[in-house]
Amino acid sequence: MKKLLLPAMGLAAFCLYLVACSKAHESDLVKNGNGNGNTCDTVNMTYTANVLPILQNNCYPCHGNGQNMGGVQLDNFATLETLAHNGTLYGVITHASGYPAMPEGGAKLSDCDINKIQDWINRGAQNN
Ligand code: HEC
Fold it and tell me: For this UniProt entry, which residues form the secretion signal (predicted)?
């Protein structure tokens, strides 16, 4: 019995090591955004250069160019600013509970895009 215990413990330790390693890797991926080797710059994001293109590609079909599904027009900056400041924008794109998941019926935004929007919100959701 004792003979079996030692290798079993060794195996368990090895498994823990593997799990710890893959977890460490996971947070690297989140930091880098998309995890496929491309770097994802999420520092000093601005509305015009970084956030607007994401919204135009993923949200304007229903919330821009005259579309206002759910009564929301994201090409109205004042509206967008309010949603950014009150947590709704972040809630819908991260599929947080209590918010309708956006884009509705579509795939969740990439971690990279979510991080970009988050940085812009954290920096005060400026019209820059
Ligand atoms: C296919 C159409 C469609 C797309 C694309 C879409 N939405 Fe929506 N959106 C809706 C509809 C419909 C509602 C109303 C849903 C509800 O109230 O349950 C809504 C509601 C919202 C709301 C209001 C939530 C609330 O609690 O009041 C926000 C904010 C929002 N969408 C943001 C976004 C963002 C940001 C994107 C892009 C990442 C996006 N939407 C993409 C259809 C869409």
Answer: 1-26
